[in-house]
Design goal:
two-stranded antiparallel ribbon, single chain, disordered N terminus, alpha/beta
Amino acid sequence: MTISLRNRRAGAAATATALALASLAALAGTATSASASGRATTATATEAALAPASAAAPKAVSPAASGDPVSVSVSVFGLTLPRPTGPYATGRDTLFLTDHGRADPWVPAAGPRRLLVSLHYPARPGSGGEPAPYMPEAEARPMLAQRGLDDPEWPGLVAATRTHSRTAARPAPGRFPLVLLSPGFGTPRATLTGLAEELASRGYVVATADHAYESTGTELPDGRVLPCAACDEVDAQPDEAGRRKVLAAVATGRAADFSFLLDRLTGPRPAWRHAGTIDPRRVGMAGHSIGGNAAASTMAADRRVDAGVNMDGAFFEPVPARGLGRRPFLLLGTEAGHAPGADTSWDEVWGRLDGFKRWLTVRDSGHFTFTDTPVIGEQLGIVDPGAPLSAARSTTITRAYVTAFFDRSLRGRPARLLDGPAPAHPEVLFRHP
């Protein structure tokens, strides 16, 4: 893969960026690659890096003209996510939850399993305080360092990305479907903020979880930052079979995490102050990469989840042969990695899905197309010839198809977008193997 960085400083930093982006998915969803320091690191498909065009004054790379109702630019205040397009204002809360019934699977000595959860929800216009922060700098720093990007100014730029959700906002009246979101392996939950805000603006409560010791860095309320012990466990395996076994355990472990989270959000003594806005009879789940596998694993383990989406994730933990109880499932992936025959786990799972299902691939996309990475990277001057789809198109496609799927599955609304190819989205291919 060749990476061009517009307006970047030349030298060692550019070389580190190229190295960090050089590996493709050797394991149909993960790859073991050398970092700039020479240490073997586990990347989920192609671990896209975020490198500013200039640490002092980042300049935007203009997206291709597309007519999309989203814009990507660097404002005078710094980086920003595309504005949500739904009718609701959005609020955000954060929960820190401890499952005292389970020890942490990666660091048992750390005690019970812990989750940090971002809750985005429809809010009353004009209520709330400041826009919610995007990501703690203490999380941005290891995320970038893992990709060989160690300029001291870069974590602050990424952490300061502006969101559109207000803290302490009052919820809009009504009860709303719940969507659970799970990020890719080694990736902070913040990278799914754009999708979470869009869904919240369209009338969903969205709970996005960081799973302890499965991200490059997770900052706890007391300021401690948990490293990615699960990444080290994958790295320590002697062969592909061992790595796949660990990654399957990631998916099933996350299923247990989300069942616990559902208990805490919809049970008799909910942990969230606005839990009354959730309709527990309508629950969906989507995930990126290993988080997409976790969506299927959660559905297999917990009947409360009514529909699922896998965004470009290999199935290290397969769907049971019995299927998912006729519940709907969407496969949304890259053309290069997840066309029929490219990832045999998708071919196998397709035959087991026994409800409404769609297999969509997106031309010119990359593994991180379905996250905030294209939006942030494009503003900072990254050019990736291997994934030329613009940030605006990446955002529009992800929003359109994920929202259409949940509108159909959780609200019973017509979703013509899922009936077949759409002229407005020529990059999206319908697969029927």
